[in-house]
Structures are given as C-alpha cells and as structure tokens.
C-alpha cells in the first residue's frame, strides 16, 4: 500500500448484493467507471468477493465489494452464499441489485437479505437494474420495499448511475462520525514521544499502519511527534528534559511495554498504539473488561489469538510466539492456542476461554464491532493485544492514564 493511500479500514465499505445474473457486476462497473468485475450471461460468474479500493465521487475513498449471487446452489454454491453473508459484517452501505426486467414470482431471498441489513443496522438501497427495459413486475418490487429505499438504474445506458452514487454518499453520511485516534488527547504544539521497535518483524523501510496513522493524527491536531526506538528512549527523554521540554504522552509498541514503562517517568502518561486503536474502533471498554479472564483460565483451556492482517511470521512473531509465552507465564497453566489472521474469524467461539485480538488497523470499525459482538453473544471474553500485554506486565492501570473514564472501571 502506498503511503499516500487511504487505509482500507478507513474507507467506506460498499457491498453489492443480489441474485446471480441480476446485474450486480454490471452495476459495480458502471458505478466505478471501470471493468472491475467480469460480466457474463453465465450464472455464477462472480465466485468470490471482489474488492476494489478507489475514490468514488462525491463520497471519497471507498472499498467496493462485488459478491457472489445469494441464490447460488450446490455445496460450493452454499459456501459462496456463506461468504457473501460474511461480507455484511464489514459493509457500511449495502446495495441490493434486482433485475427489473424479469417477473419476480419469489423475492424471498431478497427479503431475507433486507432483513439482515436491518438486523445488522446497515444502511441499504435497492437498485432495480435494466431501467432501459419495461419493469416486469412493479407490484412485487413495491412489496419488497418502499420507494424511499428503491431506485431504478441501467448499467447498460448509465441511466441514474450518478444518482445512485449520490444516494450511496447520502446514506453513508448517516454513519457515525469517524473517531480520532490520538489528537483529542493533546493540545497544539504538545510533544508526544512514539516508541517504535525496529526488529525482525518491522517492515523494511517503513512504519506499520498504526504508527503512520498516529503520526498523521498528531499532525492534524497540530502536535509534535518524536519517534525513537526503545534503545534510545532514555537518552531521548534526558535530552528533552535538558531542553526543558516534557512530553505530554509516550506511546509505545505493545511488545516493548515492559522496558518502556521502566524508562518513562511516572509523571508522563504512557499508552500503546494497540490501546489507541482499540479506542479508535470503539472497543476499549469491553477489551479492558475481557482481560480479567486471564485469571480464570484452567489447564487445557483454549485461547484464540486473532490478527486482522496477514503477514510473513518471523521466529519472534508477537501473535504466535510472544503472546502465548506471556500468557503461559502469567497464568502458569497448560493452555492450547489457535490462531487466525486476515478475514478469517470463527463463527463458533464456544471452544475458547479467551480471545485476544490485535488492534484491528486493517479492519474497519464495523467488522471489529461484529467480532466483539460475536464474542459477547457467546459469553466469551475478548481483549486486545496491548491491553493484555500491559496487564501481564502489571502496568495496565498506568497505560490507561490518558483514559480516566476507562481506568475508573478497573477493579
């Protein structure tokens, strides 16, 4: 990803849904102005979700998702339908495409999708495609939804495609405003020290996404960031002190929490990129509550460690090596660990005594909230990398100093 590219997690996710051959891919291509999706008269041409990050005027940076047909058949087709429904967990705006030129004796599949949109609180639009042809069954479409949610378009002629884009933009505007990452914690010209370890897992020549986003958010707030490794932190703080400059805040990579907490004076608030990300996604409070489950784990319990991104794992990988080591050391229990990454997240969570999730910088807020809700609905505690690491090192209370309302919830 280019450094100047809006991260996928910060883009509005627009999912296009419908039956096979309803014209989903044609509408997607018309909306994007690109041949993004393969178009064919053969049913089931789209076999897997197709993602495209782009700028969609008048909305801005978006993630377009073209999905397989919801009426796919057979064992493989049912798996495609399952994947299509999983896309709803990250969809900010849903567009249901219906072929208006066909008589609609049964719109049950579309009704079920609309019910899912409503249940998941996803703003939605029904795009009745092929408006260049006579509408075959206006009564069925009227029964499907009211006019406020429905509009006629033609992917072939481009009729009302611009209006569809405007409607999508208007619907997206109803979403909750984006939460800031850090700039509400500082004042203009405040100095914030960012501690960034450079080890085997660090990407060559660049910073990882939460570090980039934190620097940018500080710039947007008019604050000043100083970036250093943990090995230079003591000297950095000493020189700042000699210059009469006291940092407003120190933010560290979670895996360096222990050493950074020892080097940072007690009168300087300390937190981590992962904790900032949990707050950014609206999950800080339940993640703090969930970490207490570490004290209840028993021999033989299973722990799920889940990452939102996929990357080549190094020998000292935080997810598969360091976290299990810290958890085993803290609990003194013989535990079993499972690992997921990227878009994989189990629907059935009952085998687990605890879920430990990364900050979710590569996942949008809706998907992170979905994962937390899955855990809550199944009564499985879920916490965050940074919160767990601070807890096992005995510094969670200190790491929550910037968030007094959350800190007050600690026992």
Keywords:
411 residues, alpha/beta, Rossmann fold, 3 domains, six-stranded mixed beta sheet, four-stranded parallel beta sheet, 15 helices, 14 strands, 34% helix, 18% strand, globular
Polypeptide structure, described:
The protein is of the alpha/beta class and 411 residues long. It has three domains: 8-172, Rossmann fold, CATH 3.40.50.300; 183-276, Rossmann fold (3-Layer(aba) Sandwich); 284-392, Rossmann fold (3-Layer(aba) Sandwich), CATH 3.40.50. It has 15 helices and 14 strands. The chain has helices at 24-32, 74-87, 108-119, 138-144, 161-172, 209-220, 233-242, 257-263, 273-280, 284-290, 318-331, 365-377, 385-392, 396-399, 404-407, and strands at 12-18, 50-56, 60-66, 93-99, 124-129, 150-152, 191-195, 224-228, 249-252, 270-272, 302-306, 336-340, 352-357, 382-384. The strands form three sheets. The protein has a six-stranded mixed β-sheet, sandwiched between helices. Strand 7, helix 6 and strand 8 (224-228) form a beta-alpha-beta unit. The longest helix has 14 residues, at 74-87. It starts with 11 loop residues before the first strand and ends with a helix. The mean pLDDT is 88.
């Amino acid at each position: 990803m280019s450094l100047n590219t809006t991260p996928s997690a910060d883009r509005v996710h627009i999912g296009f849904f419908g039956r096979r051959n309803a014209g989903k891919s044609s509408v997607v291509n018309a909306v994007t102005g690109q041949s993004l999706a393969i178009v064919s008269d053969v049913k089931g041409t789209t076999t897997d979700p197709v993602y495209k990050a782009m700028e969609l005027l008048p909305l801005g940076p978006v993630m377009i998702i073209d999905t397989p047909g919801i009426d796919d058949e057979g064992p493989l087709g049912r798996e495609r339908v399952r994947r299509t429904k999983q896309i709803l967990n990250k969809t900010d705006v849903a567009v249901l495409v219906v072929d208006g030129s066909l008589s609609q004796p049964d719109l049950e599949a579309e009704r079920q999708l609309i019910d899912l949109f409503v249940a998941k609180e996803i703003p939605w639009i029904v795009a009745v495609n092929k408006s260049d042809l006579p509408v075959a069954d206006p009564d069925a479409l009227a029964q499907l939804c009211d006019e406020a949610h429905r509009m006629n378009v033609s992917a072939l002629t481009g009729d009302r495609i611009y209006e569809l884009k405007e409607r999508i933009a208007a619907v997206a505007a109803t979403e909750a405003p984006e939460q800031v990452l850090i700039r509400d914690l500082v004042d203009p010209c405040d100095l914030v020290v960012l501690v960034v370890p450079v080890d085997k897992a660090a990407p060559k020549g660049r910073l990882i996404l939460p570090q980039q986003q934190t620097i940018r958010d500080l710039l947007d707030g008019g604050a000043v960031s100083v970036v250093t490794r943990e090995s230079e932190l003591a000297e950095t703080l000493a020189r700042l002190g000699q210059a009469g400059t006291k940092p407003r805040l120190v933010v560290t990579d979670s895996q360096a929490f222990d050493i950074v907490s020892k080097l940072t004076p007690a009168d300087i608030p300390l937190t981590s990129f992962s904790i900032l990300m949990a707050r950014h996604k609206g999950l800080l409070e339940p993640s703090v509550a969930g970490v207490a489950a570490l004290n209840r784990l028993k021999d033989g319990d299973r722990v799920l460690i889940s990452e939102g991104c996929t990357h080549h794992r190094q020998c000292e990988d935080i997810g598969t090596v360091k976290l299990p080591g810290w958890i085993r050391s803290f609990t003194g229990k013989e535990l079993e660990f499972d690992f997921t990454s990227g878009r994989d997240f189990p629907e059935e969570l009952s085998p687990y005594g605890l879920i430990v999730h990364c900050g979710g910088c590569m996942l949008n807020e809706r998907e992170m909230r979905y994962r937390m809700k899955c855990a809550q609905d199944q009564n499985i505690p879920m916490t965050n990398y940074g919160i767990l690491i601070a807890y096992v090192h005995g510094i969670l209370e200190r790491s929550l100093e910037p968030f007094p309302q959350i800190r007050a919830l600690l026992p």
